[in-house]
Amino acid sequence: MALLQARQVTHRFNGLAAVADFNLTLEPDELVGIIGPNGAGKTTVFNLITGVYRATAGSITFAGRELVGLTPSRITALGIARTFQNIRLFRDMTVLDNVRVAHYGSVGYHPLEALLHLGRFQREEERIIAHSRELLALLQLEGYAGEPARNLSYGLQRRLEVARALATGPQLLLLDEPAAGMNPQEVIGLMEFIQWLKKEFHLTILLIEHQMHLVMNICERLLVLDFGETIAAGKPREIQHDPRVLEVYLGRGVSAGGGPDALR
């Protein structure tokens, strides 16, 4: 059974279709990318999957469960986590506390137990701290546990955002432009990091990205959006030579120059 399936999903803002008749099937352990120019509807797709927006029409299922109409917190609890194009950390909280806070949607104690610091609260807190430190160690952030998140470099803040997402125990991880603001050398490191994440945590990954070198080299399949519509879908090499995709990225004069090398 497919892990995630979107069927004929449409979302409108004041009558304008930001996403139209969107279809996607994700199998377990896949790494799939969504590309397209700014305003194509890519982040809207992520917001629809995670419950930030409710689809105007269509169906989105995760492990057979309908997501349309569920709250973001419920969708997270089902096993979907995400990062954001613009980093959204709790900047004044410590690195450790940024990861700890992601656990509190699924704690096993009652608010009264937390207020009175009863036994189950203490055990759960110890588990949360231990798991948070384990994630920080795996993502090479353990040395920064007591630092305010704002003190981290841009690249480490990106890594911390991933650690916080992993703290929810996802099966599906959505990465929204993870390479934004990175130089070419950092992008190479990110490619290795994403592939390691997928293997280490047994994740299915769906990512949005403008860095063609990244998506062409690590994604198994690509979908291309333009003005909310899917104009192409397939393996990276197929997408690289699709005339509709070349037109979107290079303009109508592709036959006179440019070509698929621009999408490498």
Mean pLDDT over all positions: 89
What is the H/E string?
EEEHEEHEHHHHEHEHEEHH
Count of runs of 4 or more consecutive helical residues: 10
Structural class: alpha/beta
The fraction of residues in strands falls at: 15-25%
Our Rg estimate from Cα atoms comes to 20 Å
Residues in helix, %: 25-40%
Number of strands: 10
Shape: globular
Strand order across the biggest sheet?
A: 6-7-8-3-9-10
Kindly report how far apart the N and C termini lie. 33 Å
Largest sheet: 6 strands, mixed
Could you name the ranges where pLDDT drops below 50 across 5 or more consecutive residues? 252-258
3D architecture notes:
Helices cover about 35% and strands about 20% of the residues. With about 260 residues, it is of the alpha/beta class. The chain has a domain at about 90-170. A six-stranded mixed beta sheet has the order 6-7-8-3-9-10, with helices on both faces. Helix 7 links the parallel strand 7 (about 170-175) and strand 8. The longest helix is centred in the middle third of the chain and has 20 residues, at about 120-140.
